[in-house]
Structure formats: structure tokens, C-alpha cells
């Protein structure tokens, strides 16, 4: 996907997430997501923080997180998630079309963010939102190319990942096959779509398998 296609997808997917958020009950806004310790409101606020997050925000978050990036992101999301839910949804509408993204990130990062976090929200709520396969492939290429924060190549060492709906393949070893959506969730450390994957390498990517094989 080129830069224009990526941003077009980001905007469509953010709009779709905003549509979903508008249907939620108060209890659903506080429902746990696939991100441990994060409620729906936290993830939703985090996603739309991307076009609002500047250098000063980054410095403040890192200071509050005592230099721990993951903790900094979590604390920032919790703070933003305390806003009224109407304001969170309004931010999606207000920032529709924005191409701003946090310092130190590239154009593929907002795409990865919206694709995966939409599933983080939707799946635990029993909602369905199909991930665009071509966009998921672009996001997967980004995840596979970097070590932090997902460490996908290390975690999934010893298996071959093969998409069944687009042309994408990575790794070496026994095969794990499935849709690009299911593979992207696996690449980013989610286990919620393991039942949508198959192949002789599947047992090697289940939780606890790494310790069993000494990785």
C-alpha cells in the first residue's frame, strides 16, 4: 500500500470504530479488552490520541512512566480514558482526516494501531469488524520489521507464518496458516484468534510453548 492508501484506510477504520463506539452501553465502555488492564474507554481514547500526541505529551508520559515506554503509554491511555465517552467519540469526528501521528512513528504505525486496537475492543464485546486483508498485510510487514514492542520474530521463531487470503509469508519452520487478520493478532501478541489458525506449527505458538522449547 502506498502512503495515500494507508491514510485512506486509517480514516475509514477510525470512522468505523467511532460508529461502533457510539452503540456501546455504559457497561461496555468499561468492559475489559484484549489489552490486560485496559478498558474499552482506555483503548478508544488511546487510538484517537495519535493525531493529538506531540513532543510535550511524549516527554510528560515518559516522565510519569519513569522511563518505561509501555507504562507511559498505559498511564496516558488511562488518563485520556477518563474523559466523558461523548468527548472521546467527538474526538474521532473532529480529527477525521488528520494525518498527524506521534513523534518517532511512521505512516504504518497509525494503521497498525487502528487495525489491532479495533479488534482489542470488538472481540471481547462479541462484535465483528473484518480487518481489511491488504491493510493487515502492510501492518504485519511493519510488525515483522521491528523488534520493539512486539518482538514478533523472536517470539515466533521456528515457524512459518502463511496468510491464506493475501500473498504474505514470513519465518521458517512448521507452518501456521490463517487469514491475515488472525496472523496480525498473533504477531502483536494476541491469542484471541488462535482458533482461526491451523497447521503443524500451531502448537509451537500457543501460550507457554516458548518455554517448553527453550526459546
User: Which percent band covers the strand fraction?
Assistant: 5-15%
Number of strands: 3
Q: Which residues sit in consecutive blocks of at least 5 with pLDDT less than 50? A: 211-215
How far apart are the termini?
A: 34 Å
Radius of gyration: 17 Å
Instruction: Report the major sheet.
Output: 3 strands, mixed
Order of strands across the widest beta sheet?
2-1-3
Based on the structure, what is the oligomeric state of the protein chains? Answer: single chain
Q: Give the count of helical stretches.
A: 12
The ordered string of helix (H) and strand (E) elements is: HHHHHHHHHEEEHHH
Mean pLDDT: 91
Query: How many structurally independent domains?
Result: 2
Structural class: mainly alpha
Q: What portion of residues is helical? A: 40-55%
Gross geometry: globular
Explained architecture:
- This protein has 215 residues and is mainly alpha-helical.
- It has two domains: 3-106, no CATH class; 133-207, Nonspecific Lipid-transfer Protein, Chain A, CATH 3.30.1050.
- The chain is built from twelve helices and three strands; from the N terminus they run αααααααααβββααα.
- The chain has helices spanning 3-21, 26-29, 40-47, 55-64, 69-81, 85-94, 108-122, 133-145, 152-155, 180-187, 202-205, 209-212; strands at 160-163, 169-171, 175-178.
- It has a three-stranded mixed beta sheet with strand order 2-1-3.
- The longest helix is centred in the N-terminal third of the chain and has 19 residues, at 3-21.
- It is globular, with a radius of gyration of 17 Å.
- The model is unreliable at 211-215 (pLDDT under 50).
- Residues 11-95 form the Mycothiol-dependent maleylpyruvate isomerase metal-binding domain.
- Pfam families: MDMPI_N (PF11716).
- One of its GO terms (molecular function) is isomerase activity.
Amino acid at each position: 500500500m502506498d502512503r495515500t492508501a494507508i491514510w485512506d484506510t486509517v480514516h475509514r477504520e477510525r470512522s468505523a470504530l467511532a460508529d461502533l463506539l457510539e452503540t456501546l452501553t455504559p457497561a461496555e465502555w468499561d468492559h475489559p479488552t484484549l489489552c490486560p488492564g485496559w478498558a474499552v474507554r482506555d483503548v478508544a481514547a488511546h487510538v484517537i490520541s495519535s493525531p493529538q500526541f506531540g513532543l510535550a505529551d511524549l516527554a510528560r508520559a515518559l516522565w510519569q512512566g519513569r522511563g518505561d515506554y509501555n507504562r507511559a503509554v498505559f498511564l496516558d491511555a488511562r488518563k485520556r480514558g477518563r474523559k466523558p465517552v461523548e468527548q472521546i467519540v467527538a474526538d474521532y469526528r473532529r480529527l477525521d482526516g488528520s494525518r498527524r501521528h506521534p513523534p518517532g512513528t511512521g505512516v504504518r504505525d497509525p494503521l497498525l494501531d487502528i487495525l489491532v486496537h479495533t479488534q482489542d475492543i470488538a472481540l471481547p464485546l462479541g462484535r465483528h469488524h473484518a480487518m481489511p486483508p491488504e491493510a493487515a498485510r502492510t501492518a504485519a510487514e511493519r510488525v515483522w520489521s521491528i523488534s520493539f514492542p512486539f518482538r514478533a520474530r523472536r517470539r515466533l521463531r521456528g515457524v512459518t507464518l502463511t496468510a491464506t487470503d493475501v500473498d504474505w509469508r514470513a519465518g521458517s519452520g512448521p507452518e501456521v496458516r490463517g487469514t491475515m487478520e488472525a496472523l496480525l493478532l498473533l504477531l502483536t501478541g494476541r491469542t484471541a484468534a488462535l482458533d482461526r489458525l491451523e497447521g503443524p506449527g500451531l502448537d509451537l505458538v500457543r501460550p507457554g510453548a516458548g518455554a517448553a522449547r527453550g526459546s
